[in-house]
Amino acid sequence: MTSRSFGITVKCFLLTAVFATAVAASAQSSRKASSSKPLQPWMNPALSADERADLVVKEMTLDEKISLLHGTGMKGLSPMSPLAVDSNGGAGYVVGVPRLGIPDIQMSDAAYGVRSSGENGRYSTALPANIAGAASWDPEAAYAYGGLIGRELRAQGYNMSLGGGVNLARELRNGRNFEYMGEDPILAGTMVGQLMKGEQAEHVIGDIKHYALNDQESGRNAVNVHIDKRSMRETDLLAFEIGLRDSRAAAVMCSYNRVNGDYACENQYLLTDVLKKDWHFPGFVLSDWQGAHSTAKASAAGLDHEEPGEIFYGPEMKKAVESGKISQTELNDHVHRILRSMFASGVVDDPPRKGVPDVTTGLAITQKIAEGSIVLLKNDAALLPLDAAKLHSIAVIGAHSDIGMISGGGSAQVDPPGGNALMPPGKGQTHWQDEIWFPTSPLKSIRAKAPSANVQYDSGADPAAAAALAKSADVAIVFAYTWESEGMDLDTLSLPHHQDDLIAQVASANPHTIVVLETGCAVTMPWADKVAGIFEAWYAGSRGAEALANLLFGDVNPSAKLPVTFPKSDADLPHATIVHPPVASTTKGGDPDAWKKIAKGLPPFETTYDEGLKVGYKWYDAEGKQPLFPFGYGISYTTYAYSNLKAVSMETNGGLLVTFQLANIGARPGAEVAEVYAALPASAGEPPKRLIGWSKVKLAAGESKEVTVQIDPLYLSVFDVTKDAWQTVPGDYTLSVGPSSRDLPLHATVQMK
Ligand code: BGC
C-alpha cells in the first residue's frame, strides 16, 4: 500500500511538475507576445554591424567584455580552462552575453569538412583537400565548397568556422600544404576568398588562417621566420589580402611562428600596420591554439581574442585593464571587433539550428568538386579514357585501393562514416595523426564502370606479385599515396613505403600502366617516363573513387590544373632541407608542462626565406630549372587552341582587359583553364613572370569563344617598401596566355604609365 501510493504520488508529482512547467512556459510566451517591451536597440538589423556593436559595448560590464576575449578550453588541452558544459564539442567555445542577446560562439575546425563529428556522434561530408579545391581553378566550385561546409557547420550547431587556410606552399614539404591553396598568391587568395564567401553566406563567422608565414610545421611554436617586407607583402601576405578583400571574412587566425623577431600573435607589423590599418580589416584576430604569449604586448599589437583558454586574456587582461596598463579604448576595440563580426555574419539574427545534414546533396557536391580538381598529368597514346567495352582485364594495385582513399590529418581531419575504412565497420575511431582512409573504394568504382572486365586487386606489398598481375592484364592502375598532417613535415618529396619501386616494377611489366596519386602536395616521380598515364587525385574526399572512375572512363573530361610546381627532385627546391628545431625549441609528447612552456615562449630558432619573391614557379623560372610538371599544368581528353590576344588598359581602374579566342578543336566537351601571366619591366626587379588572371571556360566540341579576363591593377603592382604602398612600375609589360605557366603561345605587350 505504502509503496504503491508512493509510486502514484511520485507520478502525480512528475505530471504536476511537467504540467506546471508547460503552464509557466506558455504564460511566459504569452507574456512575451503581449509585452510591448521594445526590442533591444542593437537587435535592429537596419543598423550597421558597427553601430549595433557600439550599442552593445556600452551596456557591457568589464567581466562580460573579458569573457568575449577568450575561449574556455578544449578537450585534451588541460590544464587550461576546463571545457565548458555548453560547448558544442568543437575546438573553441566562447561564452556569450545572454542578457544582451549575444549568443555563444561555437567554433569548429572545418578545413575540408567539419571536424570532430565522430566523437560527437555526428556526420560530416569530406570535400577534396583544399589544395584540390585550388586545382579546380574554379571560383564557383570554391564558393560551393564553402557553402557546403557552412551548412554542415550550422546543422551541427556551430556558428564559427576555423577553415580558410591560405599559407602559401613556399615549402613543398610542409605537412599542411593539403590544407592550403597552392603556391601562387593570386590563385590562393582568390580561391580562399570564394570559399570563405560561400561559407559566410550560410551565416557562420568565417576565418582565414594562419596569419602569417606558418609555412612549415617543424618547430612551429618556436621558429623565427626571416623575410624582407617586400617579399612578404607580394607573396604570403598578398594571398591573405586578396582572400580577405573578396570574402570579408570576419576573423583572422594568427599563427604560431615568429616573424622577423616577434610572434605572429603579438606582431605589430602583421596585425596592426598591415591587417588592421593598411587592409582596413574590421573583424577580429584570434590566436591559433596556444599561439598567444602575452597580454599587454599582444593586445597593443592587435590580438583581439585568445584561444583556447584564458592564460593571457582572462584574469590577466582584467588586471591590466583595471591597472590602466591596457586602456578602455583598446579593450573596447577588441570587444567591438568580435561583436561587429557576429552581427555582420548573421549569427545573431539567424542563429544555427541543429538538424540533419543533407548528406545526399553534400555527396553530390563533393563528387562534382573532385571531378573538377583531379589533374590529368600524362596520357601517352591516348590510353585514357579507358574504353570498358574493349577491356578484358584490369589490374588495380596498391594504396588500399580495394577499400578506400586517404585523407589529410591533424585539426583538418574529417571523420569517415563508419570509421577508418582500414578497420572493421564501426571500429575505426579517428585518432590524431593516424592515417584515415575514407570508404570510397576505387576497386568498386572501376568494377562498376567495367562490369564485363576481370578486375583484380593486388595490395602492392610484394612488387613482384603486383607486376605479375599487371602483366596478365590489359591495363594496370597503380595507386600511390603520401599521408600528410598538421604537426609534421615531409623529409622528402619521394613517395614513401617503396611505392616508387612498386610503380617501376608494374610499369616494366605492363606498358599500359596508369598511376593515380593520392598526395597532399607535389611528389617526385622517377618513373614518370615509364608509365602511360598519371592522375593527381590529391585527397579526393568522400566521393573520390566515384569521381576518379568518371575521369578514368571518360564520363567526365579532366579540367584541373596544378596549383603547385612538381619539381624533378628534392635538389631543385629552394632549400636543401627544412630547418628543424633544436631540442630546446620543442616540447616532448606527454610533457604535462608543455602548455606552460609554449605559453612562455620556446626559444627561437631561425629560418630565412631567402628565396624571397621567388615562390613556386617563380623560383624555377628565375633559376632556369625545368620542373617535372609546371605550375598551371593539366591536360584533358580534348585539345584547345588559343589565338588572337589583345590587351587594353582600363581607364577606370588602371587594370587591363585581356581578350583572346579559345577553341575546343577536339571531339569532346571540356572546360579549359586559360591562364594569363605578365612579365613586368626589368626595372621592377621581379621574377620572370607572375600569374595575373585566368578563366575556366566551358566549351562544347568544336566550339570557340572570345574570352575576357579583367586584370586587377594590384596584380600588376609591386610593393614599394620606401613608400609603404603598392606601385605600378612604368614601362612595357609582356602578357602571355596559354594552358600552363610553361606553355604560353600568345604574347602581347602593353605599356603602363
Ligand atoms: C591548428 C589550427 C586549428 C586549431 C584548433 C591548431 O593546432 O593550427 O589550424 O584551427 O588547432 O583546432
Q: What is the compact description of this entry?
A:
The chain has 753 residues and is an alpha/beta fold. Helix content is 29%, strand content 18%. The strands form eight sheets. A six-stranded mixed β-sheet has the order 10-17-16-15-11-14, with helices on both faces.
Secondary-structure blueprint of this entry?
Layout: H1 2-34, H2 49-59, H3 62-68, E1 92-94, E2 105-108, H4 130-135, H5 139-155, E3 160-161, H6 185-200, E4 207-211, E5 223-226, H7 229-234, H8 236-247, E6 251-254, E7 258-259, E8 262-263, H9 268-278, E9 284-287, H10 296-301, H11 315-322, H12 328-345, H13 359-371, E10 375-379, E11 393-397, E12 405-406, E13 437-438, H14 442-449, E14 454-458, H15 463-471, E15 475-481, H16 499-509, E16 513-518, E17 533-536, H17 544-552, H18 594-600, E18 605-608, H19 617-623, E19 640-649, E20 656-664, E21 670-679, E22 690-699, E23 704-711, E24 718-720, E25 725-727, E26 731-738, E27 746-752
Parallel strand pairs: 2-3, 4-6, 5-7, 5-18, 6-9, 11-14, 11-15, 15-16, 16-17
Antiparallel strand pairs: 1-2, 7-8, 10-17, 12-13, 19-20, 20-23, 21-22, 21-26, 24-25, 26-27
The structure holds beta-D-glucopyranose.
